[in-house]
Amino acid sequence: MKFQSVIKVLGSLTLILPTVFAKSQDYARHLELSLLFYEAQRSGPLPASNRIYWRKDSMTDAGADNHVDLNGGYYDAGDNVKFNFPQANTITLLAFSAYKWKDGYKQADQWEYIKDAIKWGTDYFIKCHTGKNELYGQVGNGSLDHGAWVAPEDMTYAHPSYKIDSKKPGSDLAGETAASLAAAYLVFKDDDPTYAATCLKHAKELYEFADKYQDTYTTGIPDAQGYYRSYSGFKDELVWGAAMLLLATGDESYRAKADAIWDYPYNKNDPDYFLNSGGPISWDDKKACSYALMYMITGEDKYKEQAFNHSDLMVNYKTTPGGLWFDTNLSAWGSNRYASNAAYTVAMVASTMDASDAKRKQYVKFIKKQIDYIQGDNPAKVDYVVGADPSSPKSVHHRGSSGTMNAMAEPSFNVFPLYGALAGGPDGNDKYTDDRNNYNSNEVALDYNAAYTGLLAFLIQEGLNVPDPKQTWQGAWPPKESTNGQIKLKLNFNGLNEFAPTVSTTGGLTCGGWCVEMDLTSSGATLDNVWGGELLKQEGNKFVACAGWGKGYLDGKGTEQNFYFRIKPNGSMKEPTEGFVYCNGYNRGDKYLVKVNGGGSEPYGWTKGICKPAHICDANGNYIKDSGVINKSTSGGSSPKTKTTTIKKTTTKAAEPTSPSSSCFATKLGYGCCTGCEVNYTDDDGAWGIENGNWCGIPDSCNKEPEPEPEPVKDECFATKLGYDCCSGCDVNYTDDDGAWGIENGNWCGIKDSCSSTPSTKCFSEPDYPCCPSGTATVYTDESGAWGVINNDWCGISA
C-alpha cells in the first residue's frame, strides 16, 4: 500500500509540474521556434514553403514610389515598417552565429532554416544597394504606420521608401549593412560560393561608401529619427564593418581602418570614444562585439584587454532577484533582449578559450543562466518565447498576430500564434504582465530574437541541450486544424428589403477578422446599401462586407456577429442559399463556402489538412522537418564530387620516343619527349604527357618563361584610382561626386574620359536638369519636351 501511495503521489506531481514550472533546457526546440518568428516577419511575396498559415503576400510594391524593387526583407516589430538599420544588425548577428556556431544549428536540424533567414535579409539588402554610393534604408513611414493597427496584408496607407547617398550619407547604416553581407559571405562561401561572392562584393562597396562619406543616416532618412536614431554615432559601425570584412577577406587594410578609430585619442566623454564600453551591444551600439571580433581574429593583447574586461563586466553586472541581467535604464524596455545581448559577446569571447579554462566555465554558466531564465527558470514561471509552453505570452504587441482592428480590442489574447517571438520581459523585480498594450514588457522585434537565437546555437554546440518531452498541449507547434470547426451564416430577411445577417463559428474555430461575400445576381434584387460593417468591394450585385470598427471576433463558441444590407427588389425576391465567409479577413483568411441557415460549411479553394498549413505535416499528422525550407535543391551543403580516374605510368615497356629532337628528362628513362606541352601526370621525375597512347616527357622548352606580353594600354578614367576598371562603353547607370559610373559583368566601372571628349548633346532641360544618356526611355512629356529619369531625378531627352 505504501508503494502504491508513492506512485500515486509521483503520478499526480507529473501531471501538475508542467503548469507550475515551465523551465526548459531544450535549446534546439526553442531554436526552431525562434527561426519561425523570422518567417512571420517576412515582407513581400512569400514562398510556397511558408509555414506561417496566417501570413500572405504583403507590400509587394515596395520601392515603387522611387521606381526601384525593394521587395523582401523583414518588418521590424509589431508594426509594418522595414527599418533597415536594426534589421541589418539582426542579420549580422544571425549570420555570425551561423558561421561560428554552425554545429549547433546542424545538431538542431536548423541549418537550412538559418540560411533561409539570413538570405531573406541579404537578398533585400542587395536590392537596396541601388547605386555605388546609394542605399535604401527604410520602407514605410513610421508616423503613418504607427497610427494604424492593421496586418501588413491589409495596409492601404502609403509606405514611402527612403535612401542615403553621397549627398546625404549614413555611415552607421551602410557600415552595418556591409557587416551583415560580409558575415553572410562566411555562411555561404562553402555551400553557395557564387552567392557568397555577390554578398562580399556589395559588402566591400558599402563599406567604402560608409568610410568615404561619413555622417549618421538620419540625416538622409529623418523619419527614422524618432524610432532608430543612432545614439552611439557611426564610428562603432565603421569598426564593426571593418572587423567583419577583415575576417571575411584577411585584407589588412580593414584592420588599419578599425585601428584608426580604436587608437584615436578621443576624450572619454566624447560620444565617439570607442574603448571601455559599459553596456551591452544593441541595434545601435557595436563596440563590444567589435572588441570580441578583433580579438578572435588577431589574438592580440590590445583587443584581448577590451574583450575580457567587457565580458567580465557583463558577467558580474547586477541582475534581477531571479538572475536576469538588468540595467535600470536600458532594461526598462525589453529586458530579455538586453540580457541576451550582454551574453552574446561573452559567448564570442568564450569561443576563443580552452574548454578547461575556469573563466570560460564561468562565462558559459552566465550565458546558460540568462537563456534558462528566459525559458522558464524564473520567479514568474513564464517561458518568454511565444508558443514554447502553456505559460508563454499570449498577448504580445503585434498587429498581424493580434487578429484585431485596434490594440485594445477583444480578444485580449492574440488570435494567431506568433511562434518563437521573444517577449520583452520582466521588470527589475521579475514581475511580468502579459498585456498587449504594455510594449515595454510585451513588444517583440527582430533585434529581440537576434542574439538569443545565436546563443541557443552556442549552447547546443556546447553539448548542453536537454530535449523536452513531445509537446502535445493545445497550441504547441505545429498548429493543428480545428477538426470540428464550422461556420454558420444566417441571413435574417425581413421579408421586404432588409437583411440582418449573423455569422458565427463553433468547434473552436476562431476568426480574428471576418468577411462575408454574397452574390445577389439570381435573387431578383439589387444591392442598395451596407451598414454595420465595412463594404470592402462591390462588383455589380456581388459584394464583400467585413467586420468594421468595434465588431467582435468569431470565438468558436457560437457567439454571433452581425451586419446589415438593404436591397431594391426587382419583382419577386429569392433569398440566396449560400455565401462565402473569410475566416481571418479577406486578404489573408481562409475562404469557406457556407450554406445559409445551418446548412454547413466547407473549405473553398484550399485543402484542409491535419496541420495548419497542411503541407507541414504528413497524412498521419507528423511534422515534416524540412517543409519550410525555401529551396530544398540546395539542402545538404556542398555539391557532389565528380568521380575521377587516375592514370598511372608503368615502366614495364618502354615506348618509342615521340619527338627525338626534343630535349626532356624522359629520354634517360627510355621514353620520348612530347611534341606539345599538355601535362597529364606529374611525379618525382617530372611532368608527363600522353601522345599516341604512350607516355612522353614534357619538353624542357615548355618550362621556359614565356616572353611577357606587353601590357595593354588602359583606358583612362577616374575609377582606376578608386580600384575599379573603366567601362568599355559609355552608358551611364549612376553618377556621384567621383564621376559617372556604368555596370559591366555585374560590376561597377568608370565611364572613360574619352566618352566625355565627345561633344555633349545639348538638350532643352539644361541647365536645370541634365541631359539623359542615349537610349533613356521616355516616362513623361510636356510642352518642353520628352523627359526620362536617371539617378531618381529628371533628365531631358535630346530630340
Question: How many separate domains make up the residues?
Answer: 5
Largest sheet geometry: 6 strands, antiparallel
Q: Count of DSSP helices?
A: 19
Strand order across the largest sheet:
9-10-7-13-14-15
CATH class division of the largest domain: Mainly Alpha
Proportion of residues in extended strands: 5-15%
CA radius of gyration is 32 Å
User: What general outline do the C-alpha atoms trace?
Assistant: globular
Task: Summarize the amount of helix as a percent range.
Answer: 25-40%
- Please state the second-level CATH architecture of the largest domain: Alpha/alpha barrel
Could you give the count of β-strands? 25
> Which structural category do the helix and sheet elements fall into?
alpha+beta
Report how far apart the termini are: 104 Å
CATH topology assignment of the largest domain: Glycosyltransferase
Catalytic activity: Endohydrolysis of (1->4)-beta-D-glucosidic linkages in cellulose, lichenin and cereal beta-D-glucans
EC number: 3.2.1.4
Pfam families: CBM_10 (PF02013), Glyco_hydro_9 (PF00759)
Organism: Neocallimastix californiae
